[in-house]
Amino acid sequence: MWDAMPGTGAFVALGDSFTEGIGDPYPDGSGYRGWADRFAERLAVGRPGLRYANLAVRGQLLREVADDQVPRAVAMAPDLVSLAAGGNDLLRPRADPDAMARAFDEAVARLCQAGCQVLVFTGFDPRTFPLIRLIRGKIAAYNMHLRAIAHQRGCLLVDLWSMRALADPRAWSLDRLHLAPDGHRRVALRASEVVGLPVEEDWREPFPPVPVLPRHRATAWLAARRADAGWAREHAAPWVARRLRGVSTGDGVPPKRPELLPLFPQAL
Length: 268
Hints:
Blueprint: E1 10-15, H1 17-20, H2 34-46, E2 51-54, H3 62-76, E3 80-84, H4 87-90, H5 97-113, E4 117-121, H6 136-153, E5 156-158, H7 181-195, H8 217-245, E6 257-262
Parallel strand pairs: 1-2, 1-3, 3-4, 4-5
Antiparallel strand pairs: 2-6
Helix pairs in contact: 2-7, 3-5, 5-6
């Protein structure tokens, strides 16, 4: 297990919108927090002087993460790097989980050869939502590769697929692609457990039950279908339109923490 004991260290987060923190805005509107910021904050408690960079950019494909972010992380020489990538690829019809796994393995190998401990994330189980769950098989195949890569390369593994609490729609934003604040909080707790950090909360805790009286079940079903139609209009259609135009939500968006700097001012 990676050394999570007190001491100065460096953590670099790589990936796409999941690691950038989309869906978990800071209250002051200064940007997105997300699981990686939350995890870094926990990591800094036991590691005074922790330096943290977040190179993740929304919309990036696996190859972009491997070609653009991985070399920058290697140059920073951190002792811990998180890698969560491939979700945007899997949303595309021609995604090949086997080819993606080879690219992911190459990225992990570069980080390991540089002396970094790598924290690998699998993909989520998308069974909660219609349409998106149609790619469940591809995600499952990709995840099998990721688990094997983590085992063979000696990586730490955060298995998002097995986090049953995230099957609750309340863990997700309205776009059904990004976690809501509580979903990010739970992932940060899970990542903390994986690296050996003490946690005082349980990410497994279920959401409070939502009672539905028998006579209201039909109404609830209709409300759910209206929500599906609203999602298709407000989120799915714009996504398809961007794909047709060949543009990404990350075009022109810089990483939120491009430099490896102390997380807290008092660490200076």
